[in-house]
Amino acid sequence: MADKCCEPSGVFAGLWETIQEQLQKQGIDLEQICAGGAEDAPFKVVCVTPGLKQTVEEMARSPRDQVVMVRVDEETARSLDAWVETDAVKSRSEAAALFIREGIKVRSGELDQLREALEDVGQAKQRLEEQARQVIGNIPDTTN
Predict the structure, then answer these.
(1) What is the pTM for the complete model shown?
(2) Distance from C-alpha of 99 to C-alpha of 86, rounded to nearest angstrom
(3) Which of 28, 32, 39, 40 has the greatest CB tally within 10 Å of its CB?
(4) pLDDT, tens digit, for every residue of 66-81?
């Protein structure tokens, strides 16, 4: 399958195969949808992490003291408002925080790769500065 979203492992793998079989019987090719080949399909496949309730509970236990300002389009704002109306969350801010956290969970592998690459860049920058100090001699140390 083309998308990681369509490749669950462990306990979900058997369930996923059953879902695929049932959809296939209905003429729905899930592999094509996950690969992005069904842009005009009359349905939508959404991947949601299994622990949404757990994430809400975790958020209630930890302080949300970091402010991040975002601008969203009207459709996204309506979606956040819908979550508030369900009483699952108290505000647009809480809904946005929930889905940011869930998005980070879904993309944790990619984020780990980015963090590793940033670490590599930092180390390379440090080596470059050390080499420049050896060559030029009076470059201020920025590692402190």
Answers:
(1) 0.53
(2) 15
(3) 28
(4) 999 999 999 999 999 9
